[in-house]
Specification:
Blueprint lengths: L2 E3 L8 H14 L5 E2 L11 H10 L13 H15 L8 E4 L1 H13 L5 E6 L3 H10 L2 E6 L10 H10 L4 E5 L11 H14 L2 E5 L22 E5 L12 E4 L5 H11 L5 H10 L3 H24 L13 E5 L7 H12 L1 E2 L1 E2 L11 E5 L4 H16 L2
Parallel strand pairs: 2-11, 4-5, 4-6, 6-7, 7-8
Antiparallel strand pairs: 1-5, 3-9, 8-9, 10-13, 12-13
Helix pairs in contact: 1-11, 2-9, 3-9, 4-5, 4-8, 6-7, 10-12
Length: 384
């Protein structure tokens, strides 16, 4: 069963709304436990900071619209070493985070008004970006019973109900942390090929897969649009730098769009990103902390009566069923923030149909923050 949203309308990004409300509380002198945004607590690797510091006295001019050739060559090496894939630096575009990558992908690959499928629950900016650009979203609902994983059968059923021209899919996913294995991804890609659907692989949480190495769509096809970012694995959210790998038929069109929409990604961020690719040992240290936090928060939430199902296979989120306490996740999240000073994101951000029953908690921060948040939540829930 599918649902379409041709007139879905622009909605707030509730995670960012919660950030603003939390900052207002902090301005009044109260401390807030931040579990609302997927933002690593650690800074980038020390060598990243050193490289940017050394570049600061130099003029920071535009780079080529595709990005620094040094960075694109480093990305080609990354795909060779991590994924065993030969990728042409000329097929790559350095972007302003993954966000501009979505905009470029939609405009480069699809006609105005095209239908593009996404999963529900899913990253809220997917729907809002599609709506804001005049495209139409087809939502494919997923369930906790299936581990929140998309299957080829789901895609084919959705397509029969309402054909679409593209599929945007993330593994590991936000907000559930669900991830498909290599065979599952191959079946998804093969289903798209059979249906003539352009596949867009959102790989922003690659590297943060707790089962083993993340599998890129590039390992399985040369026809996908791959979007990634330095935000999560490389601890560079505010640097606003990401990248795309494009199939040959879209490279020139995407480059022209980049020239006109964004000119180029920030130069200093590209310098830092080039160094970050060689600092995976540092990123793996952060990942080990997230893994420990995953165990900590899931155990704590279950003890509080919040059902998180199976632990997430990737990313750094716990998507908790709060229906024991509320049927209004937005009101619940605001009360949790105002009364307990714990910031979390209501599930309606990710699922406009059933998200009223869920709240997402990020465990990208420190263990100390999570422990304090669980203590505060225990007191908060004891009064409900």
């Amino acid at each position: 069963m599918t649902s379409t949203a041709p007139d879905i309308g622009l909605k707030p990004f509730h995670a960012m709304e919660m950030v603003s409300l939390a900052q207002e509380i902090e301005a009044s002198g109260r401390s807030v436990c931040h579990l609302e945004v997927g933002e690593p607590a650690a800074p980038p690797a020390p060598r990243v900071i050193e490289a940017v510091r050394a570049a600061l006295p130099q003029p920071q001019r535009y780079t080529a619209s595709k990005g620094l050739i040094e960075l694109r060559e480093a990305l080609a090496h990354y795909y060779e070493s991590q994924h065993g894939v030969s990728a042409d630096p000329q097929s790559m575009m350095v972007t302003m985070g993954s966000s501009s990558g979505f905009i470029l992908a939609f405009h480069a690959a699809f006609r105005p008004g095209a239908k593009i499928a996404v999963t529900r629950p899913g990253y809220p900016a997917y729907l809002n970006t599609l709506d804001g650009l005049g495209f139409r979203a087809v939502e494919i609902p997923l369930t906790a019973a299936s581990g929140w994983r998309l299957t080829a059968a789901d895609i084919e059923a959705a397509y029969r109900a309402e054909p679409f021209e593209g599929l945007l899919f993330a593994s590991p996913a936000n907000p559930t942390g669900a991830a498909v294995d290599r065979q599952g991804l191959k079946e998804i890609i093969d289903a798209c090929a059979r249906l003539g659907v352009r596949f867009i692989s959102d790989e922003i949480y690659h590297g943060l897969d707790y089962r083993g190495p993340s599998v890129s769509a590039l390992e399985l096809t040369g026809d996908a649009i791959v979007i990634n970012s330095f935000s999560k694995y490389y601890c560079m959210t505010g640097w606003r730098v990401g990248w795309m790998v494009l199939p040959p038929d879209l490279i020139r069109r995407a480059e022209m769009l980049q020239q006109n929409f964004f000119i180029s990604a920030p130069t200093l961020s590209q310098i830092g990103a080039t160094v970050a690719l060689g600092e995976r040992d540092y990123s793996e240290e952060q990942k080990a902390r997230y893994a420990a936090n995953r165990t900590l928060i899931n155990k704590g939430l279950r003890e509080l009566g919040l059902d998180t199902g199976h632990e997430a296979e990737g990313a750094f989120y716990a998507y908790a069923d709060v229906s024991r306490f509320t049927n209004d996740s937005l009101a619940f999240s605001k009360e949790l923030l105002n009364q307990a000073a714990v910031a979390a994101t209501p599930g309606i951000d990710f699922d406009r149909v059933n998200g009223n029953r869920f709240v997402r908690f990020s465990y990208a921060g420190s263990a100390e923050t999570i422990e304090e948040a669980l203590t505060r939540m225990s007191h908060f829930l004891s009064t409900r």
